[in-house]
Amino acid sequence: MHKTTKEIARLILYDSAKIQEEEAKKANEEHFSKHFPAKPLYTERDVDAVIPKFRVVEKDIEIKLNEDCFFKFFYAGHILGACSIELHIDDKIFVFSGDIGQDDDMLMFAPQKPRKADYVFLESTYGNRIHPKNDSLFELETIINNTYQKGGTVIIPSFAVERVQTMMYLIWQLKKENKIPNIPYIIDTPMGISVLDVFKENRNWHKLSFEECDEMCKVFTLISEFQESMNAVFDKRPKVVIAASGMITGGRVLSYLEQLIDKPETTIVLVGFQAEGTRGRKLLEGEKEIKIYGKYYPIVANILSIESLSAHADQKDLLNWLSDLETKPKKVFLVHGENQAADELRLKINEHYDFECKAPFLGQIIEIN
Asked: Is residue 95 within 8 Å of residue 86, measured between CB atoms?
C-alpha cells in the first residue's frame, strides 16, 4: 500500500478495535447481545501484530514481484492514499480500479485514467446514477439555517476519511461568508480528527494548502474524549455535529441518535453511500424506527441526503475513466456494486465503447486465458 494508506489504515484499525472493545463491554454490562460474553472481532493487541506486516510502496513506480510479474499504483482520487493498480503478468495487463473519486471533487484531484489494459476490473458503486449538480453549499446552508430556526441539532453521520474533511470545508466556506449562525460546530470522531493531521501532511494528495487546512479547523470544536462527547450529546443548544460512522453502523453518532432521533427539530443529513442493510440505508428508505444497542427508537427527525457529496465516481465519471485506453480491452469486469448498478453500467459501457463487459455473480469463477 502507499504510505498514506498505511497511516490511515493504522488509525482506522486502532479506532475500530477500540470501538469494538467498548461496545463488547457495553453489551456485557447491559445484556443486549445474543452472545455472552460478547467479544470484539479483534482488539488493539491484534492491530499491534498486523501493522508491521504492511509493506509500503510509492505510486507511479513499477514494483517487481518476479521476472514475469510487476505492478504499479496510480492515483484514484477517492480518498487520501487511494490507488488503482496496474498489474503485469507475462504479456497481459490487468487494471484494478479500486474505488474511484469524482472527476470534479471539491478536495481531491481527478482520478488518473489507465492507458493500457487487457482486462479491467472496474468498481460500479454508482453505476446506475448520475450525481445531481445541485449546489451542495446552498443545500447545507438551507439545512443548517432551517434547523437552527427550529431550535434543533443537525447530525451529519460521516466517514472519518475525506468526508469529514469535505463537510468541514463546506461549513468553513459558509462561515466565512456569514451565511450560517454562530452556534457550536462539532467534530466528534477521534479518528476523523487524527486524519486531519494526515491531511495536512499529504498536501500532494488534495487541493487545500496547509494554511487553508489550519483556518478550516479553527471553526470547529474537536472532541476526542468520551466525557466531552457525552456533554455534547446532552447539550440542548442548537448545534451541528459531524460524527462517525458514515453509514451509522457504529461509532459516536449512535449516542447522538439515541437522544435526538425522536425529536422533530432534529435533522439528520446523509452525505455518502449507504449500503444495503445499514442503518443509514434504512433511514433513506423511510423506516419508522431504528435499533440502537438493542433498543428501538421512533424516527421522528427530518432525514435528508446531499447526494452530490459522494466520494465515489458516478456513471458518467466511470465511463470517462475508461476513455483513455489506447486499445480495446479483452474484457471489463464490474465489481464492488449492487446488482442493478453493475448491470446498468455494463449496458452503458457496451453502448459507449462496445467493450465486452461482464458483472460476475458472487462466488463465480471465471478463467482468463
From this structure: yes
Q: Tell me the pTM.
A: 0.80
CA distance 234 to 260: 9
State the Cα–Cα distance between residues 206 and 200, nearest whole angstrom.
9
Q: Which domains does the chain have, with CATH numbers?
A: 3-130+312-358 (3.60.15.10), 136-309 (3.40.50.10890)
Whether residue 180 contacts residue 139, with contact meaning beta carbons closer than 8 Å, is answered with: no
Residues 206-253 pLDDT 10s = 998 888 888 999 999 999 888 999 999 999 999 999 998 889 998 899
- Please count the residues of the chain: 369
Residues 6 or more apart whose Cβ sits within 8 Å of residue 185: 171, 175, 219, 220, 221, 239, 240, 242
In whole angstroms, what is the distance from residue 75 CA to residue 108 CA? 10
Q: What H or E segment, with its residue span, contains residue 147?
A: helix 136-149
Q: What does the DSSP assignment read for 82-119? A: -EEEEEEETTEEEEE--S---TT-SSBPPPPPPS--SE
Question: CB–CB of 161/78 below 8 Å?
Answer: no
